[in-house]
Amino acid sequence: MIRRKTLALVSPIAIAFGLSGCAGVGGGNIPAANTPITQSEAQQGREYHTQILQEFGGAMQGNTANYVRGVGQRIAVESGLARTPDAFTVTLLNSSVNNAFATTGGYVYTTRQLVTLMNNEAELAGVMGHEVGHVAARHAQRRQQTQQQNTLLGAAGAILSGILLGDSQLGSTLGRAALQGSQLLTLSFSRSQEEEADQLGVRYLSQAGYDPLAMSTVLESLARQSALDAQLQGRDNANLPEWASTHPDPASRVRDAATMAAGLPGTTLNRDVFLRNIDGLTYGDDPAQGVVEGREFIHPDLRFAFTAPQGFYLVNGSDSVSINGQSGQAELRVAQSSGSLTQFVSRAFQSLAGQGQSISPQIQTTTVNGLPAAYGIARANSGGNQLDVMVFAYDMGGGQTYYYQAIAPAGRSGVFTPMFESFRRISTAEANQVVPRVIDVVTVQRGDTVASLSRRMAYSTGQEARFRVLNALDSNEGLQAGQQVKLVVRGR
Fold first, then answer.
1. What whole-number distance in Å separates Cα of residue 388 and Cα of residue 375?
2. Residue 480 buriedness (CB in 10 A; 0-12 / 13-18 / 19+)
3. In this structure, what DSSP letter does residue 188 have?
4. Where does the record locate the signal sequence feature (predicted)?
5. 358, pLDDT greater than 90
């Protein structure tokens, strides 16, 4: 999702969402972790709620959002943090990343994309329970204290902190894009804290009557989705930051969650109810936020498109689009125009260099597909490595400047030239052709197979692999008549 905003050449502040938890799982029993929410914690949650909505696509409304809210509030009560469900604010976010988190004070969030990956209500409750477990155990407060003690972060409040990656502001700006696109990072919890949240979530599931194995199955689906994303994007690993990725061994975490559930009561899955309530939910990018189609990014509302270089993949983030590959990283942003394009590019380089440093590129002007443009390339040192740093800006009119920030190994800046030259306006007719993908729940008919239903998936590649991951089907697992499954189809 890319939005009009004022000049912000440094990646946005990363939010450390307040997931609080219990002490030492490794020692055996978990403490009750049911100290009620304090007024101070509730106030902190309220203060950041608006900002979270802004950064993650806003709150969704309607039947699915109401359903998610109800499930989340019911499972949250099992924590003992509050006696009534309405003490918790549970929000379905209009975001295409697989993520869930919670802030101190009873604010719990999940993205619609993560919900589409689930296959029953118990899995939804498990994700919500995991996040509430972090809150109940005050993990965020502990993490913040450790960060302050180590002087890694400035005093930015109990749950709002910045992250720097690398040894320079350039590393901070584009290093984040290399790791996770422009999706906001949530500061990682430790392995033990994630295990604590898993165990608390499993406990809450059982207490509420749900099948406690649902925590294990949703973690397995996430691991499979990450592996599939890596395969489809040509990456060597599946470790892009997303919900549940902080554990160093996803397979081990799946097994651990299953072990935690062993012997606990609870059988409810509510699969049919869940599928009925997510039927029609947007899958992947919302056209209002721009969409990724292979190597092309197209934004029908802002009326522009571009194509990533061969061998690169795109990640549509909260306020920029990242372009990632083995031979470089870049991100596209939009800012309010100020002065000439040449002045804009010069300020961009200075912002990338940081205070007390200087990058002196030769800035040139040109025209790209009818758009006035300016660009510069400079050599910089980061961690002992020589890099080419590029800024390429376009005047789209209406007081808006669109610009790339990019880095590549020294002498390899040309890898981005085709992308810079591909930036273009799109016509109204082309914009109108962009429609969302949505979840379509269908009943398997006699004669239907995985292969035949997969061909209805709204993708040109990986149709069967996508179908199997979406429906948590093993590689050789078939279908039965009467079974309900999810498809991803073109909406209207």
1. 13
2. exposed
3. P
4. 1-23
5. no
Residue ranges matching CATH 3.40.1000.10 in the chain: 287-432
CATH code that applies to domain 437-490: 3.10.350
Q: Tokens at residue 425, please?
A: 């306006």
Global confidence as pTM: 0.81
Q: Residue 348, Cβ neighbours under 10 Å: how many?
A: 28
CA–CA distances in Å: residue 474 to residues 6, 215, 477: 47, 18, 5
In one-letter notation, the amino acid at residue 465 is A
Q: Residue 82's pLDDT band (boundaries 50, 70, 90)? A: confident
pLDDT for 16 beyond 70: no
Among 47-51, 156-160, 201-205, 224-228, the minimum mean pLDDT is found in 156-160
- Side by side, which strands form the sheet with 371-382? 313-316, 321-325, 328-336, 400-409, 385-397, 371-382, 362-368
- CA–CA dist 206, 213 (Å, integer): 9
Residues 6+ apart with CB under 8 A from 250: 219, 222, 223, 226, 244
The CATH number of domain 287-432 is 3.40.1000.10: yes
Which tokens hold the place of 88?
């918790």
Max Cα-Cα span within the chain = 70
Residue of 192, 181, 204, 29 whose CA lies nearest to 108 = 204
Q: Render pLDDT for 269-314 as a digit per residue (tens, 0 to 9).
A: 999 999 999 999 999 999 999 999 999 999 999 999 999 999 999 9
The Cα 42–Cα 324 span in angstroms is 38
Average pLDDT of span 31-45: 77
- What's the rounded Cα separation, in Å, for the pair 3 and 319? 6
Give the residue with greater pLDDT, 293 vs 174.
293
Bridge-partner residues for 92, per DSSP?
A: 110
Helix axes 121-136, 191-207, angle to 10 degrees: 120
**Which residue type is seen at 117?**
L
Residues of the chain with CATH 3.10.350: 437-490
* Structure tokens that stand for 153 in this block: 């972060």
Q: Which of 12-21, 45-54, 158-167, 323-332 has the highest mean pLDDT?
A: 323-332
